[in-house]
Write a structure and sequence with these properties.
The structure is a single chain. This protein has 19 helices and 16 strands. The protein is of the alpha+beta class. A hairpin with a 2-residue loop joins strand 1 (32-34) and strand 2. The chain is globular, with a radius of gyration of 24 Å.
Amino acid sequence: MTAEKNDIREIVEQVLKTVKIEEIIGEYLPLKKTGRRFTAICPFHSDKDPSLSVSPDKGFFHCFGCGAGGNAINFVMKIEDVSFREALLKIAAKAGIKAEISIEKSEAQKQKDAISAIIRDSALFYYENLQSERSGDITSYLSKRGINLESARRFGLGYAPGGKNNLTYFLQKQGYGIDDIIASGMAAKYDDGNISDCFRNRITIPIVDHMGRFVAMAGRSLDNSHAKYINSQETPIFSKSKCLFGINLAKIFIQKEDKAVIVEGYFDMISLWQHGIKNVCASMGTSLTKRQAELLRKFTSRVELLYDSDEAGNTASDRNAEIFYNAGITPKVSKLPPGYDPDLYVREKGESALRKILEKSLDLIDFYIEKQKKICDLSTPSGKSEFVKSLLSHLTELKDIIILEEYIKRISEEAKVSENILRK
């Protein structure tokens, strides 16, 4: 089918007449049929019960919790965080409708498109460099990390050579202007006027958003002579606090299992994926943000935190679990044996062993209790006081009254202190 160019109203009408809204929304959420309607947990607020209603006969969805609603285009706009034009074209493509929409892009949008294209072509340049390398530090590093060729291809791993301007010259030959190259974070201009590639002598890792768009680049040093990891700078299309590494590949598996495994680093994520655990993504550091939790909430309401077994990993589990709770996601914490991170554990012990650890994951309160029991002596008044105060301090940010009540009950049982005293 073909729609006339420029007539957006005709395209919208044709798209909405052709697609089934329940099929569009069903690609993002598990729907349950209830009479003539479908219901689901709303991805747009901290929903515990299925508040989202989808009416196939009307072609509309509505959430009775947060008020979100509209047609299939509105839903895709909201859940994918894209413009009306992008959502319309995405759905039209699914419906087999050839839609050419002539909309003049703003200068800001033109720059965003240019940055994404530069990141994409940079990733290709680095990838081809890696494919041409068959010896030396690069092969040794990937072999040491247990990364096979299929994973290297799947994640677009590349190699940034040591020269100062290899990528910049390549991109200029592709027709990109130097200002856009610098704006993309692939090159930098110094005070003396010299321009240099930002990634040199590093394994490169493209960062792709949940829509499949290239938004940034990460690099891992081969010799540790500089910072171990670096990311390209924040740009109009990239903010580290809003992205989850691997979400573009993992989201369909996260939806299928209705659960995500959250790890810290790039190679943690790649290693778990390679070993068969596909519903995994990385927060690119232990400091998870509210925006990352909200992004993940579009795909699931359950997560398992799998961080390093050291104190930094425990601290991150504390902090990030609370962020997930307040985003409407139920977190659990998985504990690795001392001395392990997720990458090392799955490589040494295998998928089956790691899945057993994930099966034994602890609810947030159990994690807190287990941790404090190792520190506090509950046989003494001072130890009991320290135990209670520490646990209660973790609950101050929780907003769900039902969860708070359950936690107070659990702490009361463990410390043998009345619930009334704890509430006071």
